[in-house]
Amino acid sequence: ANLYRIEGWGAPYFLINSAGHVAVRPLGSSDGSDELDITELVDALRRRNLQLPIVLRFPEIVQHRMQQLQECFDTAISKYNYQRHFQGVFPVKCNHDRYLLEDIVKFGQDCKFGLEAGSKPELLIAISKLKGCDDALLICNGYKDRVYIQSVLLARQLGVNAIVVLEKMDELDMVIEASRTLDVKPLIGIRAKLSVKHGGHWGETSGDKGKFGLTVNEIVRVVYTLREEHMLDCLQLLHFHIGSQIPSISIIKEAMREASHTYCELALMGAPMQYIDVGGGLGIDYDGSKGQSTASTNYSMQNYANDVLAALIDACVLKGVAQPIVISESGRALASHHSVLIFDVLSTSHHSKGSSLTNLEVLAKNAPSCVKPIDSKGSSALDAENSCSGLTAGDQGAGEYLLSTFYQVLNTVDHTNFQEAYNDAKQFKLEAWSLFKLGCLSLEKRAEADALYEAICHKVVEYFRGCDLPDELQELNNSLAPVYHINLSVFRSAPDSWAIRQVFPIMPLQRLNEMSTIQASLADLTCDSDGKFDQFVGANGDIVSVLPVHELQKGEVYYMGLFLGGVYQEIMGSAHNLFGRTNVIHVRAKPINNQGKVNNAQNNRGGYTFERVIKGQTMEEVMRTVQHVGEDMMEELRREAEEAVSSGRLSIEEAQTLLVNYKCSLGS
Ligand code: PLP
Questions:
Q1: ipTM tops the 0.95 cut
Q2: Selecting from 3.90.1150.10, 1.20.58.930, 1.10.3230.20, 3.30.428.10, what CATH number does the domain 359-476 have?
Q3: Phi, psi angle pair for 91, to nearest 5°
Q4: Which atom of ligand 1 is found nearest the CA of 329?
Q5: What tens digit of pLDDT does each residue of 362-382 get?
Q6: How far apart are the C-alpha atoms of 116 and 189, rounded to whole Å?
Q7: Which residues line ligand 1 (CB under 6 A)?
């Protein structure tokens, strides 16, 4: 279990159960009354004809995270005797799933939880979801044109509590003009460009060279302009966002100090300030290292809430300004855990012992006149009389000599000379390639040279088994790792892992009480060499390039899961190689303690309902996005097939098989 550090990144939602399967506790319970075995869920979905890859969503995890955030701020408020309340908004950009957003608004009714929009389409979604929620806030960020700003002001007339946040100076004139034209008083916020910078993946948003927000100079000009326009009473909010996944609490403290003083100064300049919006950035622990890397955080949610309030209290006391309502725009921290991407392994490059031959053995079996079995005494395995007919003169000279020396290295490598043997093997392999390019080595002999290289490398690594490998040999070890071919597209389902090398926890979902005997890398279904996972959470907290897995058993569907991918991934995924959106299933727990034993509850665990099934895109649907119309393609193929039948190239039955297969593929 420790191999994957699941306690570090998964608690309290994910754990390994006594069956050796990954289980989920959507309500975060400590007694397991809500526990569901993910393998059982996937089996149950497959019996309902829903194919992998699948995204399982657990909305209750989001609810639990929202409650936790609220509780942390409530605790800090009473600890410091803070005078105002905390009110969260969820950034729509983090996950646009309609049902998830509706759930968030519903879950958040008691604590006035709202939404943040970062673009015009997101604004339209947020307005429709927040209609009738008087107390929840709609924070309107992002690029704005006249229509955007008018929509915000009109939404206020509908009763939506929308605040337009100025990110660029030219938005100010548009807001003033729209307010006059529509005769609606806006609530205005300012996004400040803070000088604090953070160094994680998403740090580019921060610092005075960052893309977003107003400089100090611009902020002061906004105040002057609003004052001149007699609209300073509209300015009530200060916002900042210095980037997502902030790894270190010291950065948060520093940003809060700068923002708190800016807030107070705005109040002192006469704006009736009410809100401070501290943006997103609250991070999660992707590698379970508890702050040892930028994929992790060195603070808890409670530390975060405490430090946000502490900085505000300090500044407000010093400047004699009333404390603001605190808003946060946390997305990653609320929704990452709630979805699990599940896929299976389709095939492997691994030759399991006894079931399959090594490359060298295959050559020895199939080309007996070219290759001699390895001589255990270490003598040369080839001799000149055994050469194949049809080989070039050079092949019989330089090639034979090279291969015979290569065999000697294989047969004599041991713990005293493995480094030298490895150096020789590298050199001989390159020489074999050169001879091949000069036409002096047959294809079979070149394959033999490659197989010899591989066999030597395996022996070299074997001598080091269990010890720390030097860097060069570590790379060798990784390059020898078998590849497990997995049923998904990285570009579609986990684009950040490719684009910015973000680490996500990935692990098998079953057989976790069995030793894993193989270290594999994972390659996806696309024909792109970047379509792979080669960064995994290692047992010691470091990032490793191969993942411990089990040898595949005949007929087994080997499930694996990618965790913490509930934000940004699905929407940023691309249709590279025309892989469409995957099936998404919303699962709700039925804890046994609350509702008695339910039908599908097994082994004294909770039951579940598949609350919603959102079917993925078919091949035809994805093709349509690039103007290929399935019906037209079918019709063209039918005509071709008809012609082939007329000319006797296909029987009617063969033509039918072709058409039926084509149609099935389009619809899958
Ligand atoms: N607010 C703004 C303005 C953002 O740009 C983002 C995303 O980067 C967020 C909130 C959400 O941030 P996070 O996912 O780190 O909570």
A1: yes
A2: 1.20.58.930
A3: -75, 120
A4: 10
A5: 766 665 444 444 444 444 333
A6: 13
A7: 91, 94, 116, 118, 141, 241, 244-245, 279-282, 329-333, 567
